[in-house]
Amino acid sequence: MDFVDDQYNDALIHANDEALQTQQHSYRYAGFWMRFWAYLFDIIVIFGVNSFILSPFKFINNGLPIDIWFWTWNGIIAGFIYYIYFLLMTKFFGQTVGKMILGLKVIHHKDGKLTWMDLFFREVIGRLIYNVFFLLKPLYFIIGFTNEKQGLHDMIGNTRVIHEA
User: Fold this and answer.
1) CA dihedral over 68, 74, 75, 79, signed as positive or negative
2) How far apart are CA 109 and CA 159, in angstroms?
3) Do the beta carbons of residue 93 and residue 100 sit within 8 Å?
4) Which residues contact 157 (CB under 8 A, 6 or more apart)?
């Protein structure tokens, strides 16, 4: 009887694996240019938010930047807004405004459900690597050459960007 149960369980596992592979291959991954345009829309949104939030600082210190070691107060706040925007929009909507406009969505590579840890690695660590090590910016181009159109930040966060159905 155990032999029959084992065969039945193996058949179920095999069927689930095939269904998962079919689901993974049914996605239409977003390429470099679609993601590039989505990012430009996002930068415009972030610029608008930063302009609104940071404009009162023009009236402090006679309009001069407030230095904090190597950075300025405005730079720290603008950077915080940049990372929080990508993190929260992707967590709660699965997409940023730019991705919404172009019909793109970020998913986890296995089941599509994004966790905070996936997004932390994708949106904070991945983007921090690109932004701190400016010479790595050209690595965005690898999106155009990988099978599932992944950038370094997607690989770090185990995510994919797909076209919404």
Assistant:
1) positive
2) 5
3) yes
4) 118, 119, 120, 121, 122, 123, 125, 126
- Rounded CA gap, 40 and 37, in Å? 5
DSSP string, 45-97: HHHHHHHHHHGGGGGSGGG---EETTEEHHHHHHHHHHHHHHHHHHHHHSS-H
Instruction: Write down the pTM of the prediction.
Output: 0.76
Name the region of 62 (left: φ>0; alpha: ψ -120 to 50; beta: rest).
left
pLDDT in tens, 69-109: 777 778 888 889 999 999 999 999 999 999 999 999 999 98
